[in-house]
Write a structure and sequence with these properties.
This protein is of the alpha/beta class. It contains 11 helices and 8 strands. Strands 2-1-3-4-6-5-7-8 form an 8-stranded mixed sheet, with helices on both faces.
Amino acid sequence: MSYLSSHHTACLGCAQIVAARLVIDQLGPNTIVVNATGCLEVTTTTYPHSAWQVPWIHSLFANAAPIGSGIDAALDYLTINNKKKSIPRPTVLVQGGDGATFDIGFGALTASWSRGDNLLYICYDNEGYANTGMQASLSTPSLAQASMKTKYNKYLNKRDMIAIALAHKVPYIAQTNIAFPLDLKEKIAKAQTIKGPRYIQILVPCIPGWKIKLSDQMTIARLASETGLYPLLEFTEGQLTKKMAVPKPTPPVKEYIRNQGRYSHLLNNDTDLKIFQNMADDNIKKYNL
């Protein structure tokens, strides 16, 4: 039995649902979930129903991490005052999309990291506000088409949450991809063994938002990592402890964007395409992929 049932209203083949199911099934039933507003919350908890088979709490975009902090403090109190010390402490899972993580809840999340809260934070990164029409977020790659994007932020780089987490000395930081489910599950399992703040970012394509076919979804997701645009990484105590090398020869980013409607304007624009290719090449060099 999965701890995230099929009684949801997400799009057919939604990558975020698949990723969330892998996460919660790996963590198991002794988990308390705090879910920020967004696609995952809306599609899995249509009132008065819930697809979650574990304790689950809805938060606003901005305060998922603080609610997790409160639960963490309550568990500390219960642990100190509980004479039955053998009762295993639940994992507090805080999760949200890139809107809640990169943008609206960013300050609250980094404050939680600064406090050292014992929380596992998962960002399901579909690179835009998918629940409300795919408006641009600070996770939206430069050059990707998105509503509410102006000529002034056309070349605005995606916010580097991995670097920000490293600057906050988060003990465990990982970046993974729904196209690599074993890597995803291994990173969740490792995060469960570590105390303190943990941050895992998962790439989850959005079929309508990225303007892609369901049949192309996993191929596109895989190419995001194989081109170097979205590398699979793991940092433990600030040290890079795991990475996935890109294949040789490395696929060009044009292969990644070819079947995405949000990048259709780049296919015949060699100048902007070169900028995008340089981003992938820079990652390959930076992480020695």
